[in-house]
From TrEMBL:
The keyword DNA-binding applies. One of its GO terms (biological process) is DNA integration. This is Integrase. GO terms for molecular function: DNA binding. Keywords: DNA integration, DNA recombination, DNA-binding. CDD domains: INT_Cre_C (cd00799). The lineage of its organism: Bacteria, Bacillati, Actinomycetota, Actinomycetes, Micromonosporales. It holds the Pfam family Phage_integrase. Transmembrane segments: none annotated. Residues 20-100 form the Core-binding (CB) domain. The keyword DNA-binding applies. InterPro entries: CB, DNA_brk_join_enz, Integrase-like_cat_sf, Integrase_catalytic, Integrase_recombinase_N, Integrase_SAM-like_N, Phage_Integrase-like_Recomb. Residues 1-31 are annotated as: Disordered.
Amino acid sequence: MNEIEVRGRPQPVTSLDPDEQLSETARRRIHESVPASTRRAYAGDWRRFTLWCTDNQRSHLPATAATLAEYVSHLADQGKAASTIERAMAAIAVAHSSADLAAPHTRPARAVLRRHRAELADGGRAVRKAKALTVTALRAMVDTLDVATLAGARDRALIVVGFALGARRSELAALNIADLTFTDDGLQVTIRRSKTDKDSLGRATALPYTSRPATCPVRNMQAWLDTLATLGETSGPVFRRIDRHGNLGRAPHGRGEANGRITGQAVAIIVRRTALRAGLDAASAFSGHSLRRGFATETHRRGKNPLRIARHGGWKDGSATLAGYIEDADQWEDNALTDVGL
């Protein structure tokens, strides 16, 4: 079940005023304005909250500020990450909004969460970050892939193009063949929508030919599309599911999209699996986000203009996230203690 189900209170009487009515099409678009992955996560968070309320004889709808704070404390006792708790609080607020109820005040809950963050820090539990993929590590990874196989050809294209785009894993998974335009200079990729592109304006990113064929995003993407074409696949998703027999697969057991599109989670699995195969240090710390983080740090280290890096990867101007990546990259190369005479 992928949607929040609001139960436990009488449904409001539907207004007969035509000015208050929404068509089914409008309702669907409002519903789908929230990404499917977010809806699934919220549904799970809401289900767990309602079960906890039942077990503790508390009202889940409407919930009080005290109930919310107590639940946050419960999640903290379970050792949940602060980001997980933040998402649960958001899911509870969404459920109340869906029921035309005011969400519980969050001040007590946020005080509990602040203390939980401090406890995590005192216990040495740092916020987990995806390990940035360097160009050297990327070369080692693609060298392990057998491009004579479907999986090898797909994974090489995914890793190389994902790094070259500075793409989020969801953006890679969402790519369609129609989003790709080859030119004499290289490849133009249209990202139709993204996490921070709330208005779905999209962006076009140019990828030039590079000097090493094994890590050239243009050559690798062309090779993968040629492979798909030999199988009769000339439209639809770029990156597709491959079954355990090495064949293009459709949705397994009724899950996923029927056209075989991979998920963002699959992107993370492919990156981590290839890092492990290459024997990289701390390989388990690599994830789908390693491609995006690695693009930011490697281009910065090579002196690229920060504004050009941001525009290429789809970060907003003045992005604190991008600034954090650059700061991490500079902690050794541009350290404040370097050359001070110690």
